[in-house]
Specification:
about 300 residues; alpha/beta; about 35% helix; globular; binds coenzyme A
Length: about 300
């Protein structure tokens, strides 16, 4: 019915190391690696969210072999974009020569990409478009409080993109599990009238992610008719290596390749799942057609995930 047809990813050139961060705030490489697994992150100097999104989307479009005219929907999942109107999706469409697609941005924090993927999947299933372009793109460095050591060490910039097409197998993109818990809406924040800054209650989020999310991820598998033990890949939101490893352990998927792009990219919010997936696919670490769990979570507190067949 639907499938992820092609992927693309892009990160800005500049790499910021833990040692460099230690010259900016009171931190050190050992603390960051032990608590988060992160070694480096990419930081955009000049590039906007639309620039990052266009770079990743252009690669996905080229890899798909489709003509720009065939794309009927463009969604950019982002929470860090400075520009609101025209939407970043409209900018991407303009730059890639996509003439008349429905274009809009979607903000569901770090769960943005998988939420957008489900939205595109539903659009294509309903016959409202034959091919959709779904992008997660973030310039988190622009909304980072560079004086707050508890959060500035976590974040990074980048983009990942996927083409969703109508000509896939029945289980090419599995049913989504998605939802949110408004009682903990304040646990991750990006607030402020003109200059929003990232903030969070790290331990609240850590406990939530490591105790409550595995059953929801299992539900995505159940809805797709795939036992967790059959998963060939697990691509969760890349927030923290310990969270990733905990989720993978709880899912009991011994043969699954577990994405750990957080080590090199930090937390790129809505960009993290498509970035990590695109890299795994590029390195051909997962066989084509094998089941892969995508599972993102974050501010809201919100989650969205689905089992896809590896493109
Ligand atoms: C953010 C996170 C890495 C912090 O790790 P933690 O083990 O919970 O650390 P704490 O916040 O309890 O802080 C422990 C100590 O380290 C200190 N600390 C915080 N950041 C530090 C840093 N970068 N370098 C050195 N010390 C730091 C704290 O001040 C605290 O010191 P204290 O004990 O003297 O008060 C962790 O809570 C986490 O990953 N949470 C989940 C976040 C997440 O996934 N967010 C997703 C958002 S989409």
């Amino acid at each position: 019915m639907t499938r992820i047809h092609a992927l693309g990813h892009y990160q800005p050139e500049q790499v910021l190391t833990n040692d460099e961060l230690a010259t900016m705030v009171d931190t050190d490489d050992t603390w960051i690696r032990q608590r988060t697994g992160i070694a480096t992150r990419h930081i955009a100097k000049e590039e906007s969210v639309a620039d990052l999104a266009t770079a990743a989307a252009g690669k996905a479009l080229a890899a798909s072999g489709l003509a720009p005219e065939q794309i009927g929907q463009v969604i950019v999942a982002t929470c860090s974009a400075r520009d609101r109107v025209p939407s970043n999706a409209a900018r991407v469409a303009g730059r890639l020569g996509i003439p008349d697609a429905v274009t809009f941005d979607l903000n569901n924090g770090c769960a943005g990409f998988t939420t957008a993927l489900a939205t595109a999947d539903h659009t294509v299933r309903a016959g409202a478009a034959s091919h959709a372009l779904v992008i997660g793109a973030e310039r988190m460095s622009e909304v980072t409080d560079w004086t707050d050591r508890s959060s500035c060490v976590l974040l990074g910039d980048g983009a990942g993109a996927a083409i969703v097409s109508h000509d896939g197998p029945a289980d090419g993109i599995g049913p989504v599990v998605w939802g949110s818990d408004p009682s903990r809406a304040g646990a991750v924040r990006l607030e402020g009238a003109w200059q929003p800054r990232f903030g969070q209650e790290g331990q609240t989020v850590f406990r939530w992610a490591t105790t409550e999310l595995a059953p929801i991820a299992r539900l995505a598998c159940e809805r797709a008719g795939v036992a967790p033990s059959e998963l060939a890949g697990i691509v969760t939101h890349q927030a923290n290596l310990r969270i990733i490893e905990s989720l993978a352990r709880q899912l009991k998927a011994p043969d699954a390749v577990v994405a750990t792009d957080v080590v090199h990219s930090g937390n790129t919010s809505a960009a993290s799942v498509p970035l990590a997936l695109a890299k795994l696919v590029e390195r051909r670490e997962i066989p084509i057609g094998a089941p892969v769990l995508l599972f993102a979570f974050g501010g809201g507190l919100a989650w969205a995930g689905q089992v896809i067949r590896c493109p």
